[in-house]
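=== RUN LOG ===
request id: a7f3
mode: sequence -> structure
chains: 1
length: 452
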Amino acid sequence: MAAFGRIANRVLNLAPNLRPLQRNLHKLNSAKSVPKNYTKYLVLVGGGLTALICTNYLKSERLDAAFRMRKSEDENLLKKLTSRERRFIKFASVEYRGQLYMTPQDFLDSVVEQEPRPRLKRRMLSDQDLQTIKDNTPPLKKGSKMLFRTLRDRGIVSYTEYLFLLSVLTKPISGFRIAFNMFDTDGNQRVEKDEFLVILRILGGTFKQSKVDEETRKLDDYIADDEGLQRKHRIDTTLQIHLFGKKGNQDLNYDGFYKFMDNLQTEVLELEFNEFSKGNVAITENDFAKILLRYTYLNTEEYDAYLERLMDRIKEERGITFDEFRDFCRFLNNLEDFAIAMRMYTLADRAISQSEFSRAVKICTGFSLSKHLIDTVFAIFDDNGDGMLSYREFIAIMKDRVHRGFKVSHWKVLEYDLANDEFIEADSPLFAVWRQRACRRLDHFKDAELFS
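=== RESULT ===
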């Protein structure tokens, strides 16, 4: 009996010591079930991820298909547009109610740069932005040769105004009066805002080939195109405010019109000149040649031949001042008159001497070019160095310069088609020339062993 009591006491004493063991065994059993729970979770998570990946893949495929369709539509649309329309769309950086606008800086970039400034998307203008633009636009009496560069992005230019401004750049001084008379439809020697807008609509061809009735045309929200170029809004652009005042009730006389056109031409020429002058009072003869040839459709070999010819013939660099550069560009705006004078002067289509060239320029423009400038021109374009210039070739090349690559050229630009191992005519000649010149520069670096 006593022995049985002792055994019972020992069992009771061991019981507390068995509790930790019991807990450990319970944990061990629970641990064995963990992999089963993880497996369930992994299956659920994996299935969800797979479904998500498939959904995103299918969604991306639909987006890619939509993007390819939209890209194809955009490409087909661009093919239907003129070169000026494509360039306007490319450089226009602001938009208001579906209509695209350039800023003053966009316009300057479009005439001197190959590509527009980098941007993520077009800036959407609000009514407050338009009011700010209106307040910041100076009147015509405060216009200057820095107008567009001062306004920069604080202004808007419509597509039809873009066409007008391009035409201003190619007008000779003698054509300023003709241009003014075109706007002055009632012949009172003053241009009103409504007269100006009528001519702009004619320039843009807003209502051409549109099959709508006259009542629809008169609606303020009538849309004449699908590209956002000429949508009709009752808003005042920077050009309208500058020329006709903030209320639009100021008439434009010839002196003000002349001043505006002359200032714009000078501003663009200064921009081109300063690009090469780097702050100096003159550019090199080589830079002068590059400016003249930058918009032409010459292939790489022809372009290099002109520059090499100039470098071989100019023994001492004196430079070309801005006044000389401006005089020559103004002469180029009289290129049609020069061509007529040459055809009358040289009936046998023979080459002309420097004195004959100088006299013809004087007759067409009313001013003379400097002797050094004429020497430089002949050094560039005199093919065989005999002191005579083939004026037909000179005129053909300079026409491309005057129209800044927009006018159809008689030159054919060929590209190498690798697939068919042949040369074909380029679809976009101006772009092809730019690409060739970029490759030429890379070849120059390669030849200089800068990459070795």
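=== NOTES ===
The longest helix spans residues 2-80.
The beta strands are 94-96, 99-101, 123-124, 282-283, 320-321, 414-417, 422-425.
=== END ===
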